[in-house]
Write a structure and sequence with these properties.
It is a single chain. This protein has one helix spanning 33-48; strands at residues 2-4, 10-17, 24-30. It contains one helix and three strands, in the order βββα. It is α+β, with helices and mostly antiparallel strands and 50 residues long. The chain is 32% helix and 36% strand. The protein has one domain. A hairpin with a 6-residue loop joins β2 (10-17) and β3 (24-30).
């Protein structure tokens, strides 16, 4: 899940909420939307790689 911040940067959050805090985990902040999308693909690949 990618959100645009007031600063103009993009932040990548986990898809699921943390059961303890009930918030999404911050997976990184990026200057461009393309950079955030690329990292999200890398995260999804890593989660499903065997």
């Amino acid at each position: 899940m990618i959100r645009k911040l007031k600063s103009g940067e993009y932040r990548l959050y986990s898809r699921k909420t943390d059961p303890k805090t009930h918030k999404r985990r911050n997976l990184g902040t990026f200057s461009s939307l393309e950079g955030a999308k690329k990292h999200e693909q890398e995260v999804q690949y890593f989660k499903h790689a065997k």
